[in-house]
Amino acid sequence: MSSEVLSQNEIDALLSALTTGEMSADDFKKEEETKRVKSYDFKRALRFSKDQIRNLTRLHENFSRLLTTYFSAQLRTYVQISVASADQIPYEEFIRSIPKMTILNVFEVPPLDGRILFEVNPNIAYAMMDRVMGGRGTSLNKIESLTEIEKRIMSNLFDRAFEHLRDAWATIAEIEPILSDFEVNPQFLQMVSPNETVVVISLETMIGETSGMINICIPHVVLEPIIPKLSVHYWMQTEKKASIPEELEALEKNIQRAEIPVSVELGQGSITIEDFLSLSKGDVIELTSKIDNPLTIKVGDIPKFTGQPGKAGKKLAVQILDSLKGGPEHDEW
What we know:
333 residues, alpha+beta, Chemotaxis protein chec, Surface presentation of antigens (SPOA), 3 domains, 6-stranded antiparallel sheet, 4-stranded antiparallel sheet, 11 helices
């Protein structure tokens, strides 16, 4: 059945047509049967569900935040990077959509097979390089005549930037991004077959006053082993596993082994600054508590028990008499 939802006006118009005889029930059935047939383009094979694309978008939203922080620190200027879109298209279509001369960084992501393409618009790439070289961040598009030094600066900058993908993908795979190739002409770069489905994450980027796009092209062969981890069912299972009894028991044991400071307060007193400055050996400071009053035992800085002083062998000790109740801290223990 069709998943479209009719509006109230469309429903009223349909009932009116059936009532007046403009459309019969048989015509309506034939139209429904016709709608069931949908054209399918095998060149644009959809290998990822909407949920999987949505989860990939969520992962790369985190990646874009990491890139924003990284480039802001490296370039010392205003940087804003955010996910603009996420689509699955044939590799050939992606190559046709990017400039004929651009910055192409090819990364391997072991232990996953295949390679990921990190395409940076020349306007953005030159603005970044200008900032690194001490300029204002203006863009000069001379991509055809990149010097070896300029290529080295750019590749180092993007190599360190793409390392943040490891943190962004930590929930689905442990990868080690490695820059394997640097190219400026997409026609010379053939990562997969032209009809291979790729996921393209487009990042809208602002460097100072220069704007442009950064595209991350991920072939299906890279994501194939971890596709189950991109489903909603996996994410729900992961959240549920976080509270299993075994993990809670292990956490409780670790907490029980933690050491905390315990102190005993003999009493308190107050003196003036003048008296404090004139203190000398043998002087006595009067405390507010009486000698037969129980002492306050503190755990950390919080009073928890009352006790009385004594000895345990040759060492000073304190015996717990009662616990302090009624305070706001008591409920926390």
